[in-house]
Structures are given as structure tokens and as C-alpha cells.
Amino acid sequence: MSEEISKIISDTEDFMQKALNHLETELVKIRAGKANPNMLEGIKADYYGNPTDINQIANISVLDARTISVQPWEKNMLQAIERAITMANIGINPQNDGNIIRLFLPPLTEERRKELVKRCNVEGEHAKVSVRNIRRDSIEAIKKLQKDGLSEDISKDTEKEVQDLTDKYISLVDKHLQAKEKEIMAV
Q: Which residue range is the domain that position 114 belongs to?
């Protein structure tokens, strides 16, 4: 029984860590006024009929605090990459000069900053829901073990351990959100 309990606890922590990692990935995509090549992560351009990540068909670099350059390895990919960035609706219009695509990040208005904070909070809420769902699944697994003969004391202790993990990861989500909000609201 103790092997099953330790597996439940380790799986719970692994899944909660994955939920936190996913939140971090999503928060990186939300721009905070500074140029970051990760903003283009997940945007796919049509590469000879296959949707392919831009970072696999072009060199993405940061020229300065407000400019990202995208230089395709094949010149004929310029139009497809430009179209993909426009379609991704990330709030930036690509500038194509025939060799390279430049993305100029406009300074954020107060209204836009508040929108971005709301978007961050939505992502944070998704992460919290994931953590709570993981807690629910783990507690159900513990109750199933209790029906199969696990003592009530051990069951309660394990449930408390799962709840402690949940509290820990919920507070980590909140810390990430506060840091991102501070980054976005900094002028």
C-alpha cells in the first residue's frame, strides 16, 4: 500500500508541476512591452504544405527592446511567415523589406496593459483549475485505496499531503501572476 500512496503523491506533484510549467509558457507569450522571441512560439507558417513553427524555418532574434527580426532561411518563405504572424493576431504588424521581417512592438497603452493583465489572470485561473482537478483525482484514488483496505489514518494523512501540495502550487501560480502583472504594468 505504501508504494501506491507514494506513487499517488509523486504523480500529483508531477502533474501540478506540469500545470505550472504550462502557465509559465503561456505567460511568456503575453508581451509585456519588451521584445521576446518566445512571443512567436507556436505560430505556424505554411512550409511546402506543412504547418511548421516559424522558429524552425527562420532565425528569430531581438534587435533592440522593441524590435524582433525574423530572417527566413529561404527567401520564398517571407510571405508565408508574414501571413502567419498576421493571422496569429498577436497585436503586431510585420514589416517585410524583401530580406527580413521586422516586428516593431508599439508602446503599451494603459488600457492595453489592463487587457493583458486580465488575460494573464485568465491563464492563471486555468492553471488553478488544473491543480484543483489534479487534487480531486488524487483524493479519489486515495479513497479507492481506503475501500481496498487502507487505514483511515493513513488515508487522512495522505489527503492532507495532497492538499498541502495543492496549496503550494496555487500560491506559486499567484506569485507568477503577480510578477507578470508587475512586469506588464511597469512603464
A: 2-29+109-185
CATH number at residue 65: 3.30.1360.40
Q: How far is CA 22 from CA 15, 27, 29, 131, in A?
A: 11, 9, 11, 11
What is the C-alpha separation between 111 and 129, in angstroms, rounded?
Answer: 27
Does this model's pTM top 0.85?
Answer: no
Same-domain pairing of 81 and 100: yes
Q: Which of 104, 119, 137 is the last residue of a domain?
A: 104
For 102-119, give the DSSP string: EEEPPPPPHHHHHHHHHH
Domain count, the chain: 2
75-123 confidence digits (pLDDT tens) = 888 888 888 888 887 777 888 888 898 988 877 788 888 888 898 999 9
